[in-house]
Amino acid sequence: MGNPVIDQLMNRRSVRAFSGETVSDDDLATILRAAQQAPTSVNGQQVSLIVTRDKSTIRRIADIAGGQVQVATADVFVTIVVDFNRTAHACQAAGVTQQIADSAEGLMVGAVDAGIMLMALQVAAESLGYGTTAIGGIRRAPQALVELLGLPAGTFPLVGTTIGVPDKTRLPRVKPRVPLSSFAMHERYDDAAVAAGVTEYDRTLAAWWQEQGITDMPSYCRATAGYYQSDYFPTVGDVLARQGFSLADK
C-alpha cells in the first residue's frame, strides 16, 4: 500500500484549468487552519493571508499578474503577505522598536516563511482534491496589489496561490525535474554534477514536451535564460522601500 502523502507530493502539478465549481466554505476554512500550523521563524508568525473570493477582485489580481487566465478563472486566490506589521505591534507591546525589517535577514525570514506557507496551503488544498498554482506574477506590479488589498507599512505581497476544482479533462502531466544526484548532493556542493544535470535536464524536458506533441516550448536553458537575463520585476525594490523594508545592514 502506498503512502498517500508521498503519492500526493510525487504527483504534484500546477493546475491551470478549472471546472468552474466552487470551493466549499468548510473546505476553505480547513485549508486555512491547516496552513496556519506551518512553522515560522522564532514563532513570530510574520505571514498573513488575504483570501479573495470576489470574482471582480480576482480578475483585477489576474491583470496585475500580467493577464493570467489561470488566476482569473480560479475560485479562490490567496495572497501570501510578509507581515512585519504584526511583529511591530508585538515589539511595541514589549516596549522596544522593531529593527528586523531593516535588515537582509528580515527579507530572508519573510521569504522563507512565505514559501513554507505556500507549500502548506497547496498541500492542504490538494489533499482535499483541489488544484493550485503558485503565482509569483503578483510581484509584476506590487504597488497596485498593495493598494488593492489595503496593505499597511511593514507588509509585502510576496506570492499567491490559486485554488479551484480542477478540470479533469485538462490535467497537465507531472513535469520531470533535474536529476536527483544534481539536486540532492551529499556532504558538499558538487558544481560538476549541477552543470551535468542542467545538460541532461535540457534534453529530458524537451523530450517530455515532444511526447505530448508540443514542439514550440523553449528548452530548460532557453526558458530560464529568458527570465534570468534581466530583472523581470524591476519595481519590487522600490515598493519594498515604500512599505518600510530596507537593507540597512548591507
From TrEMBL:
GO terms for molecular function: oxidoreductase activity. Belongs to the flavin oxidoreductase frp family. Residues 10-164 form the Nitroreductase domain. It holds the Pfam family Nitroreductase. This is NADPH-dependent oxidoreductase. InterPro entries: Flavin_OxRdtase_Frp, Nitroreductase, Nitroreductase-like. The keyword Secreted does not apply. Keywords: Flavoprotein, FMN, NADP, Oxidoreductase. SUPFAM superfamilies: FMN-dependent nitroreductase-like (SSF55469).
